[in-house]
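Why show two proteins at once? Because comparison is the fastest way to build intuition. When a single record is shown, students tend to memorize it. When two are placed side by side, the eye starts asking what differs. So, the first record is below.
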Amino acid sequence: MSSLIQDTDNTHSWAVRNSGLMLFRALLDRLLGTNDSYINQDMAPQSRLSFNTVPNLMEVIFRLISPPLDTTKDMLTEGVFPALQLLQRAPPPPEKRQQVQDAVLRLTASSQWHIRDKAARTYAVMTVQTGHFRQAIDLLREPKANHNASHGALMSARYILQGAWSSASAEG
């Protein structure tokens, strides 16, 4: 009986978490103007959101992408995905960019594939915005602690190079 109650609780909490993520996505689309289906991956995001008008937002995002080591898998996913989504669409202020890029790069070593992929895409968008295509080569040269970190670096380099290729193709 207790396993039935536990399964019901997990299903209920999943529904609440999923609804929360859907609400966040709707708010993000409303605040930033459009959804991802209309944004080219290599395009620099155009945002109506200013971190100056919401001063604590960058602090909250940084806490979400820098979770404590004891964070559970569900808590990590619930916080990281919305923060990464927002960073893809609204770049951090220049004075926080390096700190945020470092935190996002750490997430590319996550044991969860979806987090590695989303973090790699976010890192690439942030790198393309600052014009540091050399980052792709540097990512591949640095020694990695494990296979997840290697995979995250490879995905990041791939997305950076895809963005550079698309930009070069569009210009020429």
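Second record. Ask yourself what differs from the first in the token line.
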Amino acid sequence: MKRNLSNLLKLALVVGGLTISSSALAQSYTINTLQGKGDQHIKRHQALRSTNGVYSLLVQDDGNMCIYKNGTDFVWGTMTQNKDGAILKMQADGNLCLYNSKDGHVWSTDTYRGDASKKGSRLVLQDDGQLVLFNSANAPIWNNSKGRLY
């Protein structure tokens, strides 16, 4: 299992529909919403990595989305195993969602209601291992430790 996960994480730079950019402010890789241009996403066997390369967010074959440290140490997960999680989408409406292979909803941050201050705009896997969703004003509105921050 550790070898397979390590091999998957070597494929960490995501291609095909995902914009990965370095952010000097958060010093990590990000997924951004593109208003009117469709959702950004991570599929199975793709990963989002922290800038320092220590942490990886991975959509696994078992349907769980997890953060690992150094490729093997489990940090956090959506606990959606056996639910066929197939793709993580940063939607234009501000909600970060995990969908199954039939496009059915499996998990989300529930950050699509209210004004722009309560909607996600940018997902960041920080160098400390925290997965943080920021609004368009660059304020954190959700993280993997506490959930919604409002």
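One difference worth noting in the second protein: The CA atoms of residues 37 and 92 lie 8 Å apart.
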